[in-house]
Amino acid sequence: MTTLESAALPRRSDDETSGSILALRDVTVRFGGITALDRVSLTLEPGEVLGLIGPNGAGKTTLFDVISGVRTPDEGRILLSDSDVTRLGAVARSRRGMRRTFQRVQTFGWLSVEDNVLAALEWRGGGGGILADLVSFPTRRRRERERRVRVAEVLAQCGLTAVAQEPAGSLPIGLARMAEVARAVVDPPSVLMLDEPTSGLDEAEAARLGELIQAIRADGSCAVILVEHDVGFVMRQCDRVVVLDLGRVLASGLPSEIQANHEVRAAYLGEG
What's the pLDDT at 219? Predict the structure, then answer.
């Protein structure tokens, strides 16, 4: 697997959302008298990698919570593949193909890495109900084998084969993050949301993650939203970058456009 070069994708206006895999329309979230998100609109195209950057308190995590169904917006709409999912919860959205990792790693620490990843496939069931469990139907055993083959493939992609039988709670932070990513992608998503995925990763692990992101989006069936403080990683991996500031979209464009934006450079990229 080799790292792919980011390619610019055609961009739509906020009104041209038909065909977008994800669309936010005027999303607003308030906490008492504080407006955390202020009429945020954006679209995500199939196969696109979209980066979200901004300072602490800009609204990035709140936006992730709204998109993934953890929080319902006070105003606005969220469309997933042209279907309104604004009032659907996180589980329903996940089963429609939206998957997320978190800023703080959330693995099942007492389970092995393999079983952590396998757990993401169990919601599909095995067929036959309790009776099939009791008598171990051949179809049930076949599905179990197929799932474990898929898990082994993803563990290899994520560099986790050597620790597959280790308890997830015993892993160093870098491997634990990769285990969480593996769990998010083993059941192929249509939208993958990664919240600070390089935090705790060494250079080799971050490079592997970048390759995985590009492989996931390569066939155009999955789009990726990336919240990340490593601006260099964002610029290398993303087709388009959105900059949030105090709950509003400050800028949106190609990585080169964001890097050339004087206000963004001064505020977030450390340049005067």
Answer: 87
